[in-house]
Amino acid sequence: MTNLTRRHFLAQTVTGAAAFAQLSGLPTHPAKAKRIIYLFQSGGPSQLESFDYKPELVKHAGKDLPESVRKGQRLTAMSATQLAFPMVASKFGFQQHGKSGAWVSELFPHTAKVIDDLCIVRSLHTEAINHDPAVTFLQTGSQIAGRPSFGAWISYGLGAETKELPAFCVLISPGQGGSGQPLYDRLWGSGFLPTRYQGIKFRSVGDPVLYLSDPAGYTRDDRRTYLDGLNALNKEQLEATGDPEISTRMAQYEMAFRMQASVPELTDLSKEPESSLSLYGPDVKKPGTFAANCLLARRLAERGVRFIQLYHRDWDHHGGLVAGMPKRALETDQPAAGLLQDLKQRGMLDDTLVVWGGEFGRTVYCQGRLTATEYGRDHHPRCFTVWMAGGGVKPGMVYGETDDFSYNIVKDPVHVHDFQATLLHLLGVDHTKLTYKFQGRHFRLTDVHGHVVKELLA
Predict the structure, then answer these.
(1) Helix or strand or coil: residue 39?
(2) What is the tally of helices (H) and strands (E) in the chain?
(3) Domain boundaries, given as residue ranges, for the chain
(4) CATH assignment of 26-212+283-456, given 3.40.47.10, 3.40.720.10, 3.30.70.270, 3.40.50.150?
(5) pLDDT for 199-230, tens place per residue?
(6) Tell me: the pLDDT tens digits for 373-397?
(7) Which of 32, 66, 238, 240 has a CA 20 to 30 Å removed from the CA of 312?
(8) Which of 137, 229, 152, 179 is nearest to 434 (CA)?
């Protein structure tokens, strides 16, 4: 077993993973959050129509974006050839809510009701200007595919809290517009980490997880006998070769066997009280919707899953924003707010960190033709808004400021790596300590950058 590392050996069991976490100094400090539920709004929701109110834009409506604001910043190929960049104010009203007085768009009335639970960051910025590298950057810390995903890092570093379910689960809802940017399995992959740390994707049609059901006439005892025989053969191969991926495969076979019992119970909503279901809105009983996935996320969280990643697609409004964004908000607003309420009333919000946001923001200028009733906005990496709740963040807070055009950050910028470092800190992990040696270099989620934004911490 010369090639079998101590990490792989100890990680074959839940208790082994926990033991290794202690041996390697993780967590590095007391954790405020035990788990993360990340509500990723894929496509880049507009901050100008959600949480970054810019009333001064009414005065500039239809005027060309001044060069003093743009400052020569790069544009996407989709708007670089425009002869003009007419600015457009949001068609949707804003009001202040809660004790914090945070401004919220009328598109998010349910989120407005829980605004004092939120920590809103208006000054996040990224290095990527197109979807795939931007999503990859937020999810893996690099614009280039191949690095481990956020959830895989957490699974690797902290292990699992349960033997019955994976440490990292993924849920996807398409958005009822039926389009949206593609989401690749590598976004929840393990990269160069052992494959046992990759996210397990749940499906809305057929078996919740692929290959979960046994063939007709094949009993659970049959499956156990089969696995015992297979494990014996794999152990012989492991002793002969020392290949750590064999131990990964053995662990995954055992996890799949346990999931055959745990997943049907997890996805059975028959015992959920109506009072809980009503929090998530009318789509909660429709498998695959964002509402159904938010409820499933809560059920995964209370069963010990560490990282739960939800993706909701179709926020990419280059055109048709006035018609399209209200639909995405309607699908997500009540479920996200309901998730916070559900966690809070169960006493789980204090140690569950919930995150909402996309991969970048949208431009103040209209992409394409501006009309009296419709407009679109291009990608904008220079500033965008996310919110967090629970898990040790400061509630009722708005952090960071952008200029009157929501084009440049004027106070308290937060880089993607700063954001990732802060989330890891809340989980009790110093982001500089969670590393993995690959091809002669010690890699980490935040690469060689990032600092904890202490002002966001409760």
Answers:
(1) strand
(2) 13, 17
(3) 26-212+283-456
(4) 3.40.720.10
(5) 999 998 888 888 888 888 999 999 999 999 99
(6) 999 999 999 999 999 999 999 999 9
(7) 32
(8) 152
